[in-house]
Specification:
This protein has about 350 residues and is an alpha+beta fold. The protein has a domain at about 235-340: Endonuclease, Chain A. It has 16 helices and 6 strands. The chain has helices at about 1-10, 15-30, 35-50, 55-70, 75-85, 95-105, 110-125, 130-145, 150-165, 170-180, 190-205, 220-230, 235-245, 295-310, 320, 325-340; strands at about 250-260, 265-270, 275-280, 285-290, 290-295, 310-315. The longest helix is centred in the middle third of the chain and has 17 residues, at about 190-205. It starts with a helix and ends in a 9-residue tail after the last helix.
């Protein structure tokens, strides 16, 4: 079964939800018969296919990972964790701590790709505190690799560290060097991530390190890619509807307010009191399916950036918003503006 799902994922198959449902039903009934490798491949394949209607299987996988992490090969448990996070299923803090301890003990067995994937998962889980020793060990391991790390994996590591606010000057310099070796085609998203790393250091750690970006340099190209990505990002429907409500009461609203020297786009509202707000939307797609109150790390990073830039995030809960009438929406927004972002799910 795992081989079938793996093959479908490699083929990027579409329209196979019914077949996947049947496979998952069978897998849940026979999960004790699966090897750790089969479980890992099955979880990874499901996440790559975007199939998330399998909470019982993901829960069983999380238990298996917690109980038998030492029996998983490095590639296997990294793949299993990637499958869980890709399906937006949180394995729990106890499992994360156990994975972190095992990873520290086996850090010299990790390939650069596995290290990058592990850091990405930790970042999305907002688990920097639980994995502090692992993050330190990973940084040392990267230095051991020296020139052996593929530029793609270096960029992935740097962006994961930025999400966790653990990116330092040395890693940023390595990331910028890696950017100069990225292929001209097919790496737009990686250049976007380098641009985010540069912006992160500029906004969050300006006193420590402000990268100098020379026109025409790889760093300048990454900034350009990031700026284009931000400007073209669609404004959520709930934000546009909220602006319609607020503008009726003479609030100044800007769905595409370009800030941070043209490198960040915020959906802003200027209040009468002089406070500056940025509207964001909390939806199920931004949270873990088994923890609907916990946002993905990348979303938390964006909101932390807004705060660092002087904008208080006001987070609209999409499910509540969609069933409100106009008067209820005004009261809801007014409450949010009175208490700031205390109604946010992110809990950073």
């Amino acid at each position: 079964m795992s081989a079938v799902v793996w093959a479908l994922a490699q083929l990027e198959a579409q329209g196979c939800e019914d077949a996947l449902r049947d496979i998952i039903d069978e897998a849940e009934a026979r999960i004790d018969e699966f090897s750790t490798q089969d479980l890992s491949r099955l979880a990874y394949g499901l996440s790559q296919l975007g199939f998330k209607d399998c909470r019982d299987f993901l829960s069983a996988l999380s238990v298996e990972l917690d109980s038998n992490v030492k029996n998983f090969r490095i590639e296997g448990f990294v793949q299993a964790l990637e499958g869980l996070v890709g399906s937006q299923y949180h394995p729990g803090e106890i499992t994360i701590r156990r994975l972190s301890r095992v990873s520290v003990d086996k850090i010299h067995e990790f390939t650069p790709r596995d290290l990058a994937t592990l850091l990405e998962c930790i970042a999305q889980l907002c688990a920097a505190n639980e994995c502090s020793q692992l993050i330190v060990a990973t940084s040392r391991r990267v230095k051991d690799f020296r020139d052996q790390v593929n530029s793609v994996h270096l960029v992935r590591m740097a962006w994961a560290l930025a999400i966790m606010n653990k990116l330092d000057n040395d890693m940023l310099d390595q990331c910028l060097l890696a950017a100069s070796y990225l292929p001209a085609e097919g790496c737009h998203r990686l250049r976007v991530d380098v641009g985010r790393c540069l912006l992160h250091m500029r906004v969050r750690k300006a006193a420590e390190h402000t990268p100098r970006v020379v026109p025409g340099s790889p760093a300048a190209e990454c900034y350009r890619c990031w700026r284009k990505y931000e400007v073209e990002r669609a404004v959520p429907t709930a934000v546009l509807e909220a602006f319609g409500v607020l503008e009726e009461d003479n609030f100044e609203c800007n769905p595409h307010h370009i800030v941070a020297g043209g490198l960040f786009v915020a959906h802003t509202v200027s209040g009468r009191s002089g406070r500056r707000f940025a509207l964001e939307v909390d939806s199920q797609s931004l949270c873990f399916q088994n923890r609907p109150q916990q946002l993905l790390g990348e979303v938390v990073w964006r909101r932390q950036m807004l705060e660092a830039l002087g904008w208080s995030p006001l987070c609209i809960e999409e499910e509540k918003w969609d069933i409100m009438d106009t008067d209820q929406r005004w009261e809801y927004l007014n409450t949010l503006m009175r208490v700031g972002d205390k109604f946010s799910k992110s809990g950073w």
